[in-house]
Structures are given as structure tokens and as C-alpha cells.
Design brief:
The chain has 296 residues and is α/β, with parallel strands linked by helices. The chain has two domains: 3-160, NAD(P)-binding Rossmann-like Domain (Rossmann fold); 166-294, Orthogonal Bundle (N-(1-d-carboxylethyl)-l-norvaline Dehydrogenase, domain 2). The chain is 51% helix and 14% strand. It has 13 helices and nine strands. The strands form two sheets. Strands 3-2-1-4-5-6 form a six-stranded parallel sheet, sandwiched between helices. A three-stranded mixed sheet has the order 7-8-9. Helix 5 (96-108) links the parallel strand 5 and strand 6 (112-115). Helix 1 (13-22) packs parallel to helix 6, helix 8 (163-191) packs across helix 11 (238-255) and helix 8 packs across helix 13. The protein is elongated, with a radius of gyration of 20 Å. The protein binds nicotinamide-adenine-dinucleotide. The site of nicotinamide-adenine-dinucleotide has 27 residues, from helix 4, helix 6 and helix 11.
Length: 296
């Protein structure tokens, strides 16, 4: 079992940290928010007075923070304070460029580093069933894998520095575009008098089949566990989908990729968020798809 420092105890980091304690690790944790620190203490972590204090004696450091600027700021603070040879893992979803800068910072100080963003949401964080998409050297990934297994069920090595973040934003862009396509399919079916169940029964076993349809159907009925059956409570909030889409657009600009559907999906989720739906599940965009429809 390892001495682990965990920084960022929010909706995801809190339950992930609790799972590390449950697995028997000695956890020292820090968050800017007192309520999150209190919860981590109740879950069995030792609370440090600052990020820098949390890494004293740590063999592994894990960060779970909102965005690239937070990760770079915390890594800049803690890396000079940590023991040489420590492994540092960032599980936040951040832009690829910041992830690469973070790896460079770690390498300068002789630390092994991994970018390891997750999918699976807060349910996956609580249940230790997250998927981790990892970027970094083989040696760093091999060192990170056992501890990530205490918080997730699928750990994938995607490549070198930043490859985990790249995989995450590509996947979520595919998801956003396919969700909008599924919503448009149901909106058209409604106009044509075709029942939700009939479209589902056909498309889910035909070439229109995709995860957004078969696991996360945006209309109530065909998939009982989908947020559509629960008033579009997340699930995966539209604000987080917009964040990931913007990261994919930034990466497209920086790398010269052309993503017209990704760009359009970003615009549609921006409109949906600006209308006050940031906390709604991202499949709730079907309401906007319907309302934008031309009247016959
Ligand atoms: P959150 O806002 O609930 O938690 C972030 C935490 O970081 C907060 O508690 C905040 O106080 C803390 N923090 C910020 N700056 C800090 C600093 N300098 N020092 C210490 N603590 C600091 O966010 P979340 O939902 O836990 O998401 C975390 C990351 O995981 C994000 O990058 C998000 O995009 C990603 N993610 C979230 C989900 C989800 O369903 N919530 C799913 C997949 C990925």
C-alpha cells in the first residue's frame, strides 16, 4: 500500500479519494473548499493544510481539478516540494497542451507523470468503475496502473504525454455528434408519426446503432436507465459536455484538424447551455432540437 497525496476533492475527486482509502492506502488530501476537506476526513483521509503540505512523504500524487490552469498551478507548486522519483497523475479533463506542459514540468524534476482523464461520471467515481485513458511513458503507466485499478475497472494506455486527454476529447466529440444525430432521428420520427419504440427497435439493430441510442436513449421508454426517464437529471451535465467540446475545438485549431460537425455540435451545446441548461443532462438537448424545428 502506498502513501498517496490527493488534491481536488470535488464531485469526482471526493469519491475517488474515498476508494483509495477503502483499498488500504494512506491518503493525505487537500481541497480549497472546507466542506470537501471535511468529507474526505470523514472518509478516512488525513487532511493537509495546503497542496504543498499534502505531498510531503507521498510516493504518488493525484490531482482532480477543474481545468488546465488549475492543474499547472498546483503542479508548479507541488513538484518542487515532492520527493525525487515520485509518480504524479492528473485525472482532470484538461487541454492537451496544458497536459503536455505538466508532463514537461514533472520530467524536469525527475518525476514520472501520467495524464489519466476518466469517463464514467460521479456514479463511476463512487462505484470505482471509471475508465482511465492514460498518456505517459511505459514506466509511468506501469507504476500508475495498480493505483488507478482501485478507482476504476478499465485502464487504457493510449500513448505518450497528453494521449489520455486526446483520447478523452475525441471520444466525447463523437458522443456529442452522435447524441445530436439520435435526437434529430427521434424529432423527425415524431413529426412523421413513428413511435419512439418503433424507431428504437429498428435503429438499435440496424446501421444507426450507437451508444447514444442503445445505452443513453434521449427519449423516455426504450432504455429505462437513461436520464430521459428521470427528467434529464445528469448523468453527464451539458456544461461538462460543452467544456469537452471546446477542448476538442481548441485541439483542432492547434493541430490543423477540420471538424465541421464537431464545431456545429459545440455551437448547439453552447446555445443549450446559454439557455440555462448547463445542469441538465446532455441528452436533454433533444428539447432544443425539437424547438428549433420548422413548423409545417
Ligand atoms: P468539481 O468542481 O466538483 O471539483 C474540483 C475540485 O477542485 C473542487 O472541489 C475545487 O475546490 C478543487 N480545487 C480547485 N482548485 C484547487 C486548488 N488550487 N487546490 C486544491 N483544490 C482545488 O469538479 P468535478 O466534477 O470533480 O470534476 C473534476 C474534473 O473531472 C474536471 O476536469 C471534469 O471535467 C472532469 N470530469 C468530471 C466528470 C463529472 O461527471 N463530474 C466526469 C468526467 C470527468
Amino acid at each position: 500500500m502506498a502513501n498517496i497525496a490527493f488534491i481536488g476533492l470535488g464531485n469526482m475527486g471526493g469519491p475517488m479519494a474515498a476508494n483509495l482509502v477503502k483499498a488500504g492506502h494512506k491518503l493525505t488530501a487537500f481541497d480549497l473548499v472546507a466542506a470537501s476537506r471535511d468529507q474526505a476526513k470523514a472518509d478516512g483521509a488525513t487532511i493537509a493544510e495546503s497542496s504543498v503540505a499534502s505531498v510531503k512523504g507521498a510516493e504518488i500524487i493525484i490531482t482532480m481539478l477543474p481545468a488546465g490552469k488549475h492543474v499547472l498551478s498546483v503542479w508548479n507548486e507541488v513538484i518542487p516540494a515532492m520527493t525525487k522519483g515520485t509518480l504524479i497523475i492528473d485525472c482532470s479533463t484538461i487541454d492537451v497542451e496544458s497536459a503536455k506542459q505538466a508532463h514537461e514540468l514533472a520530467a524536469k524534476h525527475g518525476a514520472l507523470s501520467v495524464d489519466a482523464p476518466v469517463s464514467g461520471g460521479t456514479g463511476g467515481a463512487k462505484g470505482a468503475t471509471l475508465t482511465f485513458m492514460c498518456g505517459g511513458e511505459d514506466k509511468a503507466f506501469a507504476a500508475a496502473k495498480p493505483v488507478l485499478e482501485n478507482m476504476g475497472k478499465k485502464i487504457v494506455h493510449c500513448g505518450g504525454a497528453g494521449a489520455g486527454q486526446a483520447a478523452k476529447i475525441c471520444n466525447n466529440m463523437i458522443l456529442a455528434v452522435s447524441m445530436i444525430a439520435v435526437c434529430e432521428g427521434f424529432a423527425l420520427a415524431e413529426k412523421l408519426g413513428l413511435s419512439h419504440q418503433a424507431l428504437f427497435d429498428v435503429a438499435s439493430t440496424s446501421s444507426g446503432q450507437c451508444w447514444a441510442l442503445t445505452s443513453y436513449c434521449p427519449v423516455p421508454g426504450p432504455v429505462p436507465t437513461s436520464p430521459a426517464n428521470n427528467d434529464y437529471k445528469p448523468g453527464f451535465a451539458a456544461a461538462l459536455m460543452l467544456k469537452d467540446l471546446k477542448l476538442s475545438q481548441d485541439a483542432a485549431k492547434a493541430s490543423g484538424a477540420s471538424l465541421p460537425l464537431g464545431a456545429f455540435a459545440t455551437d448547439l451545446y453552447e446555445i443549450f447551455n446559454n439557455a440555462g441548461n448547463g445542469a441538465v443532462d446532455f441528452s436533454g438537448i433533444i428539447q432544443q432540437v425539437r424547438s428549433l424545428g420548422a413548423q409545417p
